[in-house]
Each structure stands twice: as structure tokens, then as C-alpha cells.
Specification:
Low-confidence stretches: 1-23, 298-306
Number of strands: 23
Mean pLDDT: 86
Strand content: 35-45%
CATH superfamily of the largest domain: Galactose-binding domain-like
Oligomer: single chain
Radius of gyration: 26 Å
Largest sheet: 7 strands, antiparallel
Structural class: mainly beta
Length: 335
């Protein structure tokens, strides 16, 4: 019996040790751009190809249009470079490289696409969004020591890099993912926590909440709504959460400015971001469900002009009224 218990204890120790190793895993090399003391990067945009060193490692920067510089804005210190075809070339490393993590600032663009290249060819999977940590698993054939890797912006946006983490083959922990499902939609509080953690912010997620306020000022022009939600339906005066420029169910444009009201229970899908003190789902987000419904109001032209019709404010209207109406307890679009 004691022998069996000893084996169980040893096995448990092995599990704990493995878990601790994963949690404590450190990249082989970290290039930190949150300080410019060592790098001496320009503080005004520069387009000329140039090399910079932190005393140990040397990088090469080349920008096609916007340029590159050190961003010294407090809280967002980083290397900015762009736009399309702007590159940051890393030095050769004396170990096999399995993965490269690019850590962006919390105010970086949600639309920046970028990838890792070797000799002008992609060796990983392109990502969208420069905010948070983007992980690039290097193709097996390009992991050898001495390989020169280049980070390239592939569309018309800037990248804002605070750190670059180089993982030696066999040491990289599993990439962090915050993807979820409608059934496991995050609460507003959890969504804020995930954004503050700053990892996998290129993932789109589902967030659930109760509508506290709706700003429809852009509806006439863009047919979308700015929807504020909270976990209890109360309007937050600080650190509020907004589904910014949100589209309707099915990622379609809204047909009515009052389609969403305070008190509605919603699940919204999009990428986490933040503007000043407001947490957001970025522009391009959309309603997955509202009050449990995942399909919109059918676009049907009524043929019963004699039926009693009401608009969404409860006012009686006639058959010539255009828009969302209620008849016999059902909503439809009268064209």
C-alpha cells in the first residue's frame, strides 16, 4: 500500500512540476521597446533604413510610407512603424526559434495585419490587430538557428510594438486564446479583465450584458448604434463598456434607430479594445442575440391596410407609414 501511495505522490509531483514549468516559462530573448534609453530610436517619424542596437541585439527598420519612431506617450511607450510593407528585421539567433510573440500596446490599431517573413516568404500565419500579444508559430523548415526573421506590416495601418519575445524550440507555452462561444459569453466584468490582461486581443469574443444606454447619433449616416451594456443594466459613469458602431443581428445594418433599448439583454460579438477610459467592442462588432432571439424582424410588406397598426412608440399609424410597425402583437417592416 505504501509503495502505491509513493508512486501516486511521485506522479502528482511530476504533474505539479510540469504545470509550474509551463507557468514559469520564459522566452529565450526579450526585446523591450517600452524604454528608449538603450535603443536610441528617433522620436520623429523617419523613413530611412537604419539599424539600432540595445547593446546586445541589433534590429533593422525600414518604412515604406509612414515611417518609424519611438512613441514616448505615457502608458503607451513603444516602437511605431508603418504602413504597408514597413519592416522590422531581427538579428540571427544562435538557437532554433519555434515562435515569435509580438506584444502591442493597448491603443494599437485593431486593423493592422502583419506576419513574419524569411527571404520574402511568409513562415507563419498572418494576424489582424496589433493590440495585445500576437503569436507567430514558425514553420518547421524555418526554425533553424541563424535564420533572419522579418516582421512586416501587410496593410495600410501602423504597428505599435512594446516587446518582442523569441521562444527557443521546445520551450514555448501554448499560445493564449480568449475565443469563446455564445453559450460561454463573457460577462462585462470578465471582458474588462481580459482586455487589461492584454493577451490574444486579436481574437473576437462574445460578451453578454444588459443594455444601459444607446447612442443613435450615427444611425442616419451609418445605420449602426453605439450600445452601452453592463452586468446589471445600470449605466456606468466610469470605465463603461460600449459596443461601438455595432451592427444588427447577423452583422446587418440596423433599420431602426430604436431597435435596441435600455433593459434589453444582448450578446455582442467583436474584438476587445479601449478608447480613453471606455472599454469597447471595436467597430465592426454586431449583435449575436437580443432578448434571446438570434434572428431579426422579417422584412414583410403588409397587405392588410385595414389592420390597426402601431409604431414602436405605441402611436397608432395608418397603412402608409414606413418602418417597423406592430399589428396583432407582431412586429414587421411596413414598406
Amino acid at each position: 500500500m505504501n509503495k502505491i501511495l509513493r508512486y501516486v505522490f511521485v506522479a502528482l509531483l511530476a504533474v505539479v512540476s510540469t504545470a509550474s514549468f509551463a507557468a514559469d516559462a520564459e522566452p529565450e530573448v526579450t526585446l523591450d521597446f517600452t524604454s528608449n534609453d538603450a535603443w536610441k530610436l528617433p522620436t520623429d517619424y523617419t523613413k530611412d533604413k537604419a539599424t539600432f542596437s540595445n547593446g546586445t541585439y541589433t534590429i533593422t527598420l525600414e518604412a515604406s510610407s509612414k515611417g518609424y519612431k519611438f512613441n514616448d506617450y505615457k502608458g503607451s511607450e513603444s516602437l511605431i512603424f508603418g504602413k504597408k510593407d514597413a519592416t522590422l528585421t531581427l538579428p540571427a539567433f544562435n538557437f532554433d526559434v519555434e515562435r515569435i510573440d509580438i506584444v502591442g500596446t493597448s491603443v494599437a490599431s485593431d486593423n493592422t495585419t502583419q506576419n513574419i517573413f524569411v527571404d520574402g516568404k511568409t513562415v507563419s500565419t498572418e494576424t489582424t490587430g496589433a493590440k495585445g500579444t500576437n503569436s507567430y508559430v514558425i514553420a518547421e523548415a524555418s526554425q533553424k538557428a541563424g535564420t533572419i526573421y522579418t516582421l512586416k506590416v501587410t496593410n495600410g495601418n501602423n504597428s505599435q510594438v512594446s516587446k518582442i519575445l523569441i521562444w527557443k524550440k521546445g520551450t514555448a507555452p501554448a499560445p493564449v486564446s480568449i475565443k469563446n462561444t455564445p453559450e460561454t459569453a463573457y460577462t462585462v466584468a470578465k471582458a474588462k479583465e481580459l482586455f487589461d490582461a492584454g493577451q490574444a486581443l486579436s481574437d473576437s469574443v462574445y460578451v453578454k450584458g444588459i443594455v444601459s444606454n444607446v447612442n443613435s447619433s450615427d444611425f442616419n449616416k451609418h445605420k449602426n448604434l453605439n450600445i452601452f451594456i453592463s452586468d446589471d443594466g445600470k449605466e456606468e459613469t466610469k470605465n463603461s463598456f460600449e459596443a461601438y458602431a455595432c451592427n444588427d443581428l447577423g452583422n446587418k445594418k440596423f433599420t431602426a434607430a430604436d431597435a435596441v433599448k435600455a433593459g434589453d439583454e444582448v450578446i455582442v460579438y467583436g474584438k476587445l479594445t479601449k478608447f480613453n477610459s471606455t472599454y469597447e467592442l471595436a467597430k465592426g462588432c454586431y449583435l449575436y442575440s437580443i432578448n434571446g432571439k438570434t434572428t431579426g424582424i422579417s422584412s414583410v410588406k403588409t397587405s392588410q391596410k385595414s389592420s390597426v397598426l402601431y409604431n414602436l412608440s405605441g402611436q397608432r399609424v395608418n397603412g402608409s407609414y414606413k418602418g417597423v410597425v406592430i399589428s396583432n402583437g407582431k412586429k414587421f417592416v411596413n414598406k
